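for the writeup, i need someone to sanity check this before i put it in the appendix. the sequnce is what the collaborator sent (i think, or maybe the updated version? ugh). structure was predicted straight from it, no edits. if anything looks off just tell me and ill rerun, i have time this weekend
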Amino acid sequence: MNIGVIGTGNMGTILIEALLDSGAVQAEQLIITNRTLAKAFNIQKTYPGITVAADPSETVKQAGIIFLCVKPLDIYPLLQQLAPYWTNEHCLVSITSPINVKQLEAAVPCQVVRAIPSITNRALSGSILVTFGSRCSTTCRQTINDLLGRIATPVYIDDTITRVASDIASCGPAFFSYLLQRFINAAAAKTAITKEQAMLLATNMIIGLGELLKQDFYTLQTLQEKVCVKGGITGEGIAVLEQEMDGIFEELLTKTHQKFDEEVEKIKQQFL
């Protein structure tokens, strides 16, 4: 089955690269397009077997599964533009969090899925947040599970936790990269270590931390207990974090949810 990707921005490109590098699809199965076609042709240079379609309608005509990787407020107008081309057999996969599957099902006659990716999927790792629409057949569900399972761990969610799940799985890499960068900057500013040395150590540390968790050597709590021995140096650092970070993540979640609610409201007006 051919797979279409409409939108080759950051996440669309990551999705294409992950699907190909994992072997989930072959380049010859992919039909991609973008508002700025040059971006799609740049991807084709790396993966010559890919077909670049002239516009979204050509993508829908040629593919059975369509990944829609455009900005939230661009989705409804695009769905309307493509209305003559959808069939009941198509499977539409939207990667944007503010639009739910019920809204998508109201706009198109085909099967719909929401699959919210993470930058970690580029390394064939992390989670991808999946919600199936009511019209999805067993075959559609299995096909999507197989595809996404090659690039990430599919985690099935409902609308009640969409935002917080996205904050952890999709936004989390940016949040924790920021914290790690601040740690590196402080180390270089406060001590004789260079930024390059601190970056190397921090990178190896975070990769090693991930491996410890992945291989179930420790949980987050037991890992802290192992490193933070009573009366030790690590405990002094933990005490600073406990004091200075109190309420930070609660405020972060408040802000992301406020922004999400604003986008949801704007989108509701489109789908009325």
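The longest strand covers residues 111-116. The mean pLDDT is 97.
thx in advance!!
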